[in-house]
Structures are given as C-alpha cells and as structure tokens.
Amino acid sequence: MVDSKHQWKAWLYLAPAIVLLLIFTVWPIFNTIRMSLLEGYTTMQDVAGVSFNFGIGNFKNVLEYHGFITCLKNTILLCVLTVPISTFLALLIAVALNSIKPLQRFLQTVFFMPYVTNSIAIGMVFAAMFNMIIGGGARPDSVGIVNNVLEAFGFEYINWMNAGSEYWANIVVMVVYIVWNALPFKILILLGGLQSVNKQYYEAARVDSTPRWRVFTKITIPLLSPMLAYVIITGFIGGFKEYSSIVGIFGEKMGPVGQQYSLDTMVGFIYRAIGNNEGRASAAALILFGIIFIVTMINLYVSKKKTHY
C-alpha cells in the first residue's frame, strides 16, 4: 500500500493515463448521450448556433428508418452463425495443436498470422476467390477459385457475390470470411488455456482407459469453460460491431451491384449517419450498446452456471 505522504506520486504517474481516458473515452460517451437527446443534431448546425429540441426524436428516427430492420437482421444473423462455428472450430484446432509436438510453434504462428493482417486486404482476397468475371458468352469468363473447386467435385458454379446473386449466397461468403478471420484470436486463447491444464487429469483418464471423446467432453471442455466463456462473449461483442469485413468484400455499398446495402449492419448505419445527422448516429450507437449489453449480460448469466473455475 502506498504511504499517504507519497500518494501524490502515484497520482502523478497515473495522470497521463487518466487524462487520455477522460478525453478519448469518458467525454465521447457523455457527448454521444448528449447528441442523441438533441433532435436532428448536426455538428455544422451546432457550430452555426442553431438550437435543438431536447427529446427522443433521434431514437424514433432510427427505429422508423426503413432499413433499420435489415441492419439489425444482418447483424444478428452474422453473430448467431459465426460465433458458434468459429468457437467450435477454434476449440478443435487448439486441441489438435496442443497434441502436436513437432512444428507446434511454427503451426501456431501460421494460424495466428491472419490476426495481424489487415482485414480489408483479407476481404479483397476473399472477394477475388468468390468473384466471377462475366463475359459475353453463356458462361462467365472466370467463376473464381471456390467455384472451380465445386466444379471439380461435380457441382455447378454459384453466383456468390455478383449482380443478381441471392442473399443466402452473400451470407455464406461473409460467414466463411468472418469465421476464418476470427479463428486466430480464439485459437490463441484456447491453446493457452489447454497448456495450463494440469496434466494429471489426462494421466488419470489414460490409466482408466477413458475414451477420447469422453476425455474431451468431461475434462477438456469443463476445464476450458472460463476461456470458452471469454471467447464467446468477446465474439458476440465483435460480431455486433461487424462492418469492415463487409466493406472489404462488397465495398462501401455493402452489397452486390444493384443490391446496395442488402448486407448493411448497425455499425454501417452509424457510419453513414456521421456527418449528416450525428444525433441519429448517436442514437443508433446507444441502441447498439443496449443490445450488446443485454446479450453480454445473458452470456455472463449462462456462463456463471456452466463455468468451472
């Protein structure tokens, strides 16, 4: 404990961090709440001295927006699909990596590389893999790498993301990309948890000739439950903020040609409102915060009953 006579030194050391938090975290939160309650607020009008009525008109504006349901549906759908799939795959890969001794560190580096790669650049690569180049003939000049693989197994090519593509095909492209992009972080967390598990549990199971599937379900998963709860909660939080991955693949219009904003999300809606109607953007941000908060509380409540420390 710091001596009371020297507490000023502790406050002095903390001062830069506190100032930065106040400027870049605390003030933006309060300012967002303030702007959301000023109906029709825009920065330019505020600078010009225009006064705004205090009320909940911005929230009504967001909820009555014709594309709000689309944004909310896309956001929830991507979360519900990608978080369980990526968590399950990360768990399987982490268990496999933990059991491999040769080249383990090399493989860990390979699996972690996507995490430090720019998401927009990765999105452009995935777009090229699924994209078709339309020519003048009955068949496209190029159907993309993914369709080439499908045709090699006897399936017909699919219009994944070009003009006229179906909504489900667009969602499949996004799910594949988001899952692949989310795997490195989850693998790292789960692998670290596996390496900290007491090996005596596995030795006792080996002595009892316990089947591997039972070891996995009765030892590995319960002992990893704190890490699983963490990656699930952070996965949902990140999923509700999905935006850059869609822009990386489909561009700023967030959808195929002729189907603009068909894959729009809550964060995309907020970004478009910034500069035009900051009051509506702030209201949408608070609505998104409320949704994330509720989902996080539900996850914490469920994980508290299922987590073994």
The residue-averaged pLDDT reads 86
Largest sheet geometry:
none
Principal-axis shape: globular
Q: What is the straight-line distance between the termini? A: 29 Å
How much of the sequence lies in strands comes to under 5%
- Individual helix count: 13
What structural class results from the helix and strand content? mainly alpha
CATH topology of one domain: MetI-like fold
- Percent of residues in helices comes to 55-70%
Which value, in Å, is the CA radius of gyration? 24 Å
Count of DSSP E strands? 0
CATH superfamily of one domain: MetI-like
List the helices and strands in order: HHHHHHHHHHHHH
Sequence-ordered SSE layout with sheet pairings:
Layout: H1 7-36, H2 43-47, H3 57-64, H4 68-99, H5 104-112, H6 119-130, H7 144-152, H8 167-195, H9 200-207, H10 212-240, H11 244-250, H12 266-273, H13 278-306
Helix pairs in contact: 1-13, 3-13, 4-8, 4-10, 4-12, 6-11, 8-10, 10-13, 12-13
